[in-house]
């Protein structure tokens, strides 16, 4: 009887909605992403969360103008993140569930039989980064990869300040300070990683790797814990 291949430790990936759908080359990107995640998910329990990006923000802005409550705005965002999860999960195909899990618990339970598992948001009050962190803590993941639209963590906002410097390694204290300065915690918030997620990973001592999500070779290296371009936050 063939012996089962030893599996690597679980990894969780949080992909920003702004990476999944940019309006440019989205279909070949999603095809390539699905192929790599499907393959990497065979060697380790792999969970992927998908963000809502500009589509979520458009709904949240319209809802806000209509006077919806913050909880209702968060729920609009969650629904968009789930649409993105369906898109990616559908392309990956079996054993990935095409109907994304709606809770952290369901995702954790299904990943051991259906890796990779793809899901969106869960409940109001945080982003899909926090969902990734909650899952990573429960799975005792080796690390979390944040695939975002900037190639790492910067000392200032690189979209506003061209002199901003990328930090290739940083500790949790420094990262917490940057997150606190950048993430307001309101619906549709945008910073490289969310506050609750950063807090959870810091407490559990799980390293966070931040990479440009559109560079698939580099994203694969970060998931596989090989040398990568980006930022490493951790001890
Ligand atoms: P995202 O995870 O996409 O947040 O969730 P984001 O910061 O906008 O990230 P990018 O741009 O995709 O990288 C979108 C919104 O959905 C709600 C929040 O309002 C969030 O800002 N949401 C998402 C929740 O309330 N709970 C969740 O678990 C996930």
Task: Provide an overview of this structure.
The protein has 235 residues and is an alpha/beta fold. It contains 9 helices and 9 strands. It has helices spanning 17-20, 26-43, 53-65, 70-92, 104-114, 128-139, 172-182, 195-204, 216-223; strands at residues 11-15, 46-50, 117-119, 143-148, 153-154, 166-167, 169-170, 208-212, 231-233. The strands form 2 sheets. It has a 7-stranded mixed sheet, with helices on both faces. A two-stranded antiparallel sheet has the order 5-6. The longest helix has 23 residues, at 70-92. The mean pLDDT is 93. The protein binds uridine 5'-triphosphate.
Topology:
Layout: E1 11-15, H1 17-20, H2 26-43, E2 46-50, H3 53-65, H4 70-92, H5 104-114, E3 117-119, H6 128-139, E4 143-148, E5 153-154, E6 166-167, E7 169-170, H7 172-182, H8 195-204, E8 208-212, H9 216-223, E9 231-233
Parallel strand pairs: 1-2, 1-4, 2-3, 4-8, 7-9
Antiparallel strand pairs: 5-6, 8-9
Helix pairs in contact: 2-4, 3-4, 5-6, 6-8, 7-8
């Amino acid at each position: 009887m063939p012996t089962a291949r030893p599996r690597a430790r679980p990894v969780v990936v949080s992909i920003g909605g702004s990476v999944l759908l940019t309006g440019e080359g989205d279909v070949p990107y999603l095809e390539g992403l699905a192929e790599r995640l499907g393959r990497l998910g065979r060697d380790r329990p792999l969970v992927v969360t998908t963000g809502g990006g500009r589509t979520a923000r458009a709904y949240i802005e319209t809802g806000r103008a209509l006077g919806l409550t913050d909880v209702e705005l968060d729920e609009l965002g969650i629904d968009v993140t789930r649409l993105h999860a369906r898109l990616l999960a559908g392309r990956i195909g079996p054993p990935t569930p095409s109907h994304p899990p709606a809770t952290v618990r369901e995702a954790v339970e299904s990943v051991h039989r259906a890796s990779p598992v793809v899901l969106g948001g869960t409940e109001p009050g945080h982003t899909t980064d926090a969902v990734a962190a909650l899952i990573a803590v429960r799975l005792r993941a080796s690390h979390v990869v944040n695939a975002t639209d900037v190639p790492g963590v910067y000392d200032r906002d690189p979209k506003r300040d061209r002199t901003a410097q990328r930090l290739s390694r940083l500790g949790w204290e420094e990262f917490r300070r940057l997150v606190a300065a950048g993430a307001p915690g309101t619906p549709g918030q945008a910073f490289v990683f969310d506050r609750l997620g950063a807090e959870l990973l810091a407490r559990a001592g799980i390293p966070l790797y931040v990479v440009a999500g559109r560079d698939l070779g580099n994203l694969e290296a970060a998931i596989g814990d090989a040398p990568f371009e980006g930022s490493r936050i951790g001890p």
